[in-house]
Write a structure and sequence with these properties.
The complex is a heterodimer. By secondary structure, chain A is an all-alpha fold. Helix content of chain A is 68%, strand content 0%. Chain A has helices at 2-44, 60-69, 81-97, 116-137, 141-172, 177-182, 194-207, 219-222, 232-257, 268-271, 275-296, 302-331. In chain A, α4 runs antiparallel to α5, α4 runs antiparallel to α9 (232-257) and α7 (194-207) runs antiparallel to α12. Chain B has ten helices and no strands. Chain B has helices at residues 2-24, 28-49, 52-76, 81-86, 88-111, 119-128, 135-143, 148-169, 181-186, 189-192. At the A-B interface, α4, α5 and α12 of A face α2 and α3 of B.
Chain lengths: 336, 204
């Protein structure tokens, strides 16, 4: 019995506690990201934003959540019920499971697997399923068009994300996320691989269906795109999933290019601050750029979106893979 | 060990059940979803074998790209299920015959199948170093040394397939006004804007 406890039960309890320690702050961040988005957009458009519920409108996300919770869940009569309900669950789930491999500090990670970056890439490439399932199951023209757009868009931009990841891996020599951050001890990869950093960020916008690539939910043409038939809690799950994915994409950007938990310079006042705080600050900075982009750019036309992905980013990232490999071999900097 | 065995039986059972559902589901879109479930369980089996790189690549390539395009096509099919089942009895004899022939062929193969004498050595080669070196690194070492020609040949086949697909679908349509980005960027204010003074009531 004691063996059962130490061998199986105790590890399970510890893992569940760790998962809760990750998921609860994450959901809290998701709630306040929606608040931050409205405040940032309002600030950039010289408005006030949410300022009524609670001090500075800080309770607004709670009010929104409660409102959505008490609405009626409408399932269209022509819809495929199982897939219709599963779609938002998939989206939300994929926004959460990616965090299993994210290192918050040296050694502070739930699952320190050898192929961490591939796992993250896999999770982000599965994000399309939530959208495509929703579009098909709704049995509605607008939702379906949104889903088709999304499928083509996400598959296209995944390719350039893949090449960017390859470029970083060439410089690291490991697929482990902790190793990737450690390799940036002296110099963040955003400096030597600046063009790849930009390509990754823009592809990240497309992968998370954010403006200026939010064609799947282009409200001017498709009403609300893939989630037009959703209401109440399923809609809230889509919303939460989208924002969790944004945070995950920012965390990926931080780990690959901005040195994860490392301070900018390893000297006195900077390295007093603990790693997780640096990590959170960098994620917040990337998220701010996400919101800034939304306030600044108009939506892309669909053919221009495809052109950017296939004719600009793909050749550019492929060229950088060759260039990086060539430089590493020529100078003998290839990691062992 | 018990957890591993339980996980193996779970993944294996679900993979086979999903595989059966792929061919028996009424709705083709549901078939694709079951196919995805089968892929996931196969990836789980790879993880149990210690082949984590293969597991992730399976999910990225098959689930993340191939199955999406599958789903893309299947969703757009407009299938009448009643019509689909009408000719079932009519086609049963010939379909059954093909099935029986395939089964007999498979049985012949399995009956005469022996493991090549040097295969054991090849299989053992990567395992010996797995303890010290990560799975991915070992995989790369083997793929880019011993099997480099096969690897390049596979790449070549894929390249030919890609060019073939492009050639088959490429058509130049006349009368389409395409966006020419270099032309747009080359335009200057001097050649595209002209300011004229328009007098009231006269027009240009």
């Amino acid at each position: 019995m004691a063996e059962l406890w130490t061998g199986y039960m105790l590890p399970t309890v510890i893992i569940v506690a760790q998962i809760i320690a990750i998921v609860v702050p994450l959901l809290f961040s998701v709630a306040y990201l929606t608040y931050a988005e409205r405040k940032v957009l309002a600030g950039m458009q010289l408005r006030k934003g949410p300022n009524v519920v609670g001090p500075f409108g800080l309770l607004q996300p709670m009010a929104d959540g409660i409102k959505l919770l008490f609405k009626e869940t409408v399932i269209p009569s022509g819809a495929n019920k199982v897939v219709f309900i599963a779609a938002p669950v998939v989206t939300f789930l994929l926004g959460l499971i990616g965090w299993a491999v994210i290192p918050f500090d040296d050694g502070m990670v739930l699952a320190d697997i050898n192929v961490g970056i591939l796992y993250l890439f896999a999770v982000s490439s599965l994000g399309v399923y939530g959208v495509i399932m929703a579009g098909w199951a709704s049995n509605s023209k607008y939702a379906f068009l949104g889903a088709l757009r999304s499928a083509a868009q996400m598959v296209s931009y995944e390719i350039s994300i893949g090449f960017v990841i390859v470029t970083v891996l060439l410089c690291v020599g490991s697929l482990n996320l902790t190793e990737i951050v450690r390799a940036q001890k002296d110099l963040w990869f955003a400096v030597p691989l600046l063009p790849m950093f930009v390509v990754f960020f823009v592809s990240g916008l497309a992968e998370t269906n954010r403006t200026p690539f939010d064609l799947p939910e282009a409200e001017a043409e498709l009403v609300a795109g893939f989630n037009v038939e959703y209401s109440s809690m399923p809609f809230a799950l889509f919303y939460l999933g989208e924002y969790a994915n944004m945070i995950l994409m920012s965390a990926m950007t931080t780990i690959l290019f901005l040195g994860g938990w490392l301070p900018p310079i390893d000297v006195a006042p900077f390295n007093w601050i603990p790693g997780p705080i640096w990590f959170a600050a960098k994620i917040a900075m990337v998220l701010f750029v996400f919101l800034w982009v939304r306030a600044t750019f108009p939506r892309y036309r669909y053919d221009q979106l495809m052109r950017l992905g296939w004719k600009v980013f793909l050749p550019l990232s492929l060229f950088w893979v060759f260039l990086t490999a060539g430089v590493l071999v020529a100078t003998g900097w290839v990691p062992k | 060990m018990i957890v591993q065995a339980l996980a193996f039986y779970m993944f294996a059972t679900v993979a086979i059940a999903a595989g059966v559902m792929v061919i028996s589901a009424r709705n083709p879109v549901h078939s694709v979803f079951f196919l995805i479930a089968a892929f996931f369980n196969a990836a789980g089996l790879f993880v149990l074998l210690g082949a984590e790189f293969l597991a992730m690549i399976l999910v990225i390539v098959y689930v993340g790209a191939v199955a999406v395009l599958f789903l893309f096509v299947v969703m757009m099919l407009d299938i009448n299920f009643v019509e689909l089942r009408q000719g079932f009895l009519q086609y049963l004899p010939i379909g059954g015959l093909i099935g029986v022939i395939l089964l007999v062929e498979l049985l012949f193969i399995f009956a005469s199948w022996t493991v090549a004498p040097d295969a054991g050595a090849v299989a053992a080669a990567p395992m010996s170093a797995l303890g010290e070196i990560s799975n991915t690194r070992m995989f790369g070492r083997l793929l880019y040394t011993k099997y480099i020609y096969y690897f390049q040949a596979a790449g070549l086949v894929l390249l030919v397939a890609m060019i073939g697909a492009i050639v088959l679908t490429l058509r130049t349509r006349k009368g389409v006004r395409r966006q020419k980005v270099p032309d747009q960027l080359r335009r200057t204010r001097a050649e595209s804007v002209e300011i004229k003074k328009v007098e009231t009531g006269k027009g240009i």
